[in-house]
Amino acid sequence: MGNVYCEALRVSRNHIKRELKQKGIRLSSFKASEVTAFAKAFLEANRQELISRAMTDLVWARLCAQLKRNVQKQNGPKTIASAVQISGSEWSVK
Q1: Range of the domain at 51
Q2: Residue range 37-41: mean pLDDT, rounded
Q3: Which pTM does this prediction carry?
Q4: Residue 70: inside a domain
Q5: What is the distance between the alpha carbons of residues 33 and 42, in angstroms, rounded to a whole number?
Q6: Would 25 disulfide with which of 20, 29, 55, 67, CB 3.0-4.6 Å?
Q7: CA 2 to CA 10: how far, in whole Å?
Q8: Is residue 60 part of a domain?
């Protein structure tokens, strides 16, 4: 559940930052801890929606990472022989 809460808090923090920017308020006028406090309050007010979104985001991230690993395994090198070894094989005695 810790990963889900951290992801939900990240989403909340990004929402707060976006809202401040849209209102023309500079982020630099707030301490990071203040933005986090706003994000925690927003998270508590919208807990069910944000936790659900965080769980979905984490599942998608894990699936994408797994797919990427599978593709890398499939596209990996077919042989460990170097180009020199391969070209040298043409000169072998028949």
Answers
A1: 2-74
A2: 96
A3: 0.66
A4: yes
A5: 14
A6: 20
A7: 12
A8: yes
